[in-house]
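Form 7-S
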Amino acid sequence: MPLQFSARNRLQATVKAVKLGDVMAEVTVALPDGQELVAAITRTSAETLQLQPGDQVVAIIKSTEVMVGKEV
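Output:
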């Protein structure tokens, strides 16, 4: 059964790097156009998902605040 999410911002990405800390993990993913996103997730989540470089993932972004900048 496919999952549905309430978050509207879902980006297909490829895991580029996973840095495990004692409690948290830093996961860098690359978008198809080469831009990168970095997510801080729990180490347990990274291990449960068995995240490895090259894995195809979906970056799901849900936030109550999003900043937009523009040069003027």
